[in-house]
Design goal:
The chain has 333 residues and is α/β, with parallel strands linked by helices. It has helices at 22-34, 86-93, 116-126, 134-137, 144-154, 161-174, 190-202, 220-237, 248-251, 302-307, and strands at 42-55, 58-71, 75-79, 101-106, 109-110, 127-130, 208-212, 240-244, 256-261, 264-275, 282-290, 314-318, 323-327. The longest helix has 18 residues, at 220-237. Bound molecules: adenosine-5'-diphosphate and magnesium ion. The site of magnesium ion has 2 residues, from helix 2.
């Protein structure tokens, strides 16, 4: 993963001044306890999520203790190699599959304990999804407008027929495919189908929109338009959106990108726009973060550890405002 900046300047190193005193550390820990946890305003919370598939006596650990928090109103991307567990996670968040262990909550719904009836309601009203295969998103014998009104009818919308048709048209207009309202999927391009699919997913005004490789079957120009459609939905309707993608161009446009590796979230990249006070010039600053689990475990990016030849053991030093990590130099002493 490329970033336009790096972590801050190198610290004083293991020979630097003594670290913070015990009293300092105790005070800091006390301050931290009084502060609300980041998770408090999270719309999606996954805590040590595990999913094991057993086929013919062979076990596959698709998710191996995955932690993830998504805030209300966020538009974020999940990236990861094929087989890293992205679709498994999306299916769980969509209410289509249940985890083997761990905890997962979405908009106040507990995805592990939810009963069949609540699960159905959850799928119809709390989450909307867009899949990679354009054909999986739309019913082939219905027009675009009918595809969008269908979830409202199934979801027991209190809207009358006319209000439903009105909302369908508004959504199609918002996503710039109003001209397709009377067409069936085979009469639309792949990009139009995906934009109609986003309208279908938004029909019941879900708290969360999940998209699994929504641009996977599209060329890069069309993929950009689809991404713009997600952004519009996020900005205009306030919908929280999670997009799985291995398209770096898409990942580069969201504020937060979380990387999944071997069924766990490993690193994340946050982007910020900085404005130079004197020139007014804007630059996008990207910073890479690693996930720290409750046991204090940290996975360092392979590019970092390989660059410094770090393996097996590293030297640590607590500094007033950071922790220094150095290659193991004990053999030289
Ligand atoms: N229904 C299933 N049965 C057995 N193994 C599965 C099933 N779904 C996914 N897996 C396995 O779990 C792992 C993660 O798969 P998946 O979540 O589809 O990854 P990704 O979407 O990141 O490519 C893979 O090794 C895959 O073969
Ligand atoms: Mg997948």
């Amino acid at each position: 993963m490329t970033t336009t900046d790096s972590v801050g300047p190198a610290g004083p190193g293991p020979t630097g001044p003594a670290g913070p005193s015990f009293a300092d550390l105790a005070q800091r820990a006390a301050d931290r306890r009084d502060r609300p946890a980041y998770g408090h305003d999270a719309l999606i919370t996954c805590d040590r999520l595990v999913r094991i598939f057993s086929t013919d006596g062979v076990e596959v650990q698709a998710l191996q203790g995955l932690d993830l928090l998504v805030r209300e109103g966020e538009l974020m991307a999940l990236v990861g190699a094929s087989g890293s567990g992205k679709s498994t996670l999306m299916n769980i968040l969509a209410g289509l599959d249940t985890p083997t262990a761990g905890a997962a909550r979405v908009a106040g719904h507990d995805l592990l304990t939810m009963g069949a009836k609540d699960r159905l309601g959850y799928r119809r009203e709390t989450v909307g999804f867009v899949w990679q295969q354009t054909a999986r998103n739309l019913l082939p014998y219905l027009t675009a407008a009918q595809n969008v009104t269908l979830p409202m009818q199934l979801g027991g919308s209190r809207k009358g027929r006319r209000a439903q048709a009105q909302r369908a048209l508004e959504l199609l207009e918002l996503l710039e495919v109003a001209e397709c309202r009377g067409r069936r999927p085979f009469q639309m391009s792949g990009g139009q189908q995906q934009r109609v699919a986003i309208a279908v997913a938004l029909a019941n005004d879900p708290a969360v929109l999940l998209a699994d490789e929504p641009t996977g079957e599209l060329d890069s120009h069309t993929a950009e338009q689809i991404f713009a459609a997600f952004r519009t939905a996020n900005e205009r309707l306030g919908t929280t959106i999670v997009i799985v993608t291995h398209d770096q161009a898409v990942a580069g446009e969201v504020r937060r990108t979380v990387a999944i590796r071997d069924g766990r979230t490993s690193t994340e990249v946050l982007r910020r726009t900085e404005v130079d006070a004197t020139t007014g010039h804007e630059t996008v600053v990207a910073r890479e973060y690693a996930m720290l689990d409750r046991a204090g475990r940290l996975q360092l990016p392979a590019e970092y550890t390989e660059a410094l030849g770090m393996r097996d053991r590293v030297a640590l030093e607590l500094e007033p405002d950071h922790i220094g990590v150095w290659p193991d130099d004990s053999e030289h002493h």
